[in-house]
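Help needed: design a sequence for this.
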């Protein structure tokens, strides 16, 4: 999808929110915002929102000298999610439809998005969102994909959220599906990396690979050969979150998008309301 004028305003919100995680010094905040303004003036709206915002996080790191501004918060969300995991696993196993329950746990975890600065309470929101129906759901079509021996590529999103993804992966494995999980090759916002995959226990479940970059979503030209081969050869691809939707919505592969619509621009692209839960199929 292409960026819209609303996305420009969001860039400054992301910049200020991120630098405030690093320092309370208003002089540093101003330096970041001025550099973001200068860089943004050279950007084009014909690119994806994720590509448009990539420079925001580079500038924050350059100005503050902090490579991973959200590391502390990523660790904390992983700890909270791991504490909740046994209770949620029991709910999935006891559910009338374990696949639907696991999808709800996974999409509920998509609230853990620190870059846009929305407030959330993981424990309260997870249980609330598990009861919220999908505004769009293609679960019946997805069920037909889950035949034994099929290759599924799972594009992960955030730290903490990756812990909840393990429950959906367990359901997929129980159906005989071969799952490969994808994380980022370096820190960007609070996206999951290999370290988070190990903490979450994902590496004990399935093969975990990296995208080859620390881009938001998937910037195809920067991906590794291993990732491209896995993407192109997958029978099914599950893409979590805004970034993966924004960068993969026009791909021809067999994609399923799982996310909470957290802004008006993405909600409009999906034909839903902001706050809705979405399990949608790509344009194939």
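Sure. Designed sequence:
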């Amino acid at each position: 999808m292409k960026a819209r004028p609303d996305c420009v305003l969001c860039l400054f919100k992301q910049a200020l929110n991120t630098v405030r995680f690093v320092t309370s010094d208003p002089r540093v905040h101003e330096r970041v915002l001025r550099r973001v303004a200068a860089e943004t003036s050279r950007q084009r709206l014909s690119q994806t929102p994720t590509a448009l915002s990539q420079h925001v996080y580079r500038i924050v790191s350059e100005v503050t000298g902090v490579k991973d501004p959200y590391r502390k918060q990523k660790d904390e969300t992983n700890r909270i999610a791991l504490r909740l995991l046994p209770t949620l696993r029991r709910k999935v196993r006891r559910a009338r439809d374990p696949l639907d329950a696991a999808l709800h746990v996974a999409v509920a975890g998509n609230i853990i998005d620190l870059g846009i600065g929305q407030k959330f309470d993981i424990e309260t929101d997870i249980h609330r969102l598990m009861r919220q129906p999908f505004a769009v759901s293609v679960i019946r079509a997805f069920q037909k994909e889950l035949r034994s021996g099929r290759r599924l590529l799972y594009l992960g999103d955030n730290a903490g959220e990756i812990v909840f993804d393990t429950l959906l992966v367990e359901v997929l494995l129980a159906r005989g599906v071969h799952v490969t999980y994808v994380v980022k090759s370096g820190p960007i916002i609070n996206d999951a990396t290999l370290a988070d995959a190990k903490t979450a226990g994902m590496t004990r479940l399935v093969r975990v690979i990296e995208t080859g970059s620390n881009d938001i979503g998937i910037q195809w030209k920067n991906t590794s050969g291993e990732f491209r081969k896995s993407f192109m050869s997958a029978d099914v691809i599950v893409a979590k979150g805004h970034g993966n939707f924004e960068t993969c919505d026009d791909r021809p592969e067999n994609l399923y998008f799982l996310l909470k619509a957290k802004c008006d621009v993405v909600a409009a692209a999906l034909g839903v309301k902001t706050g809705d839960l979405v399990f949608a199929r790509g344009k194939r």
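The beta strands are 136-137, 151-155, 178-183, 207-210, 236-240, 255-260, 277-281.
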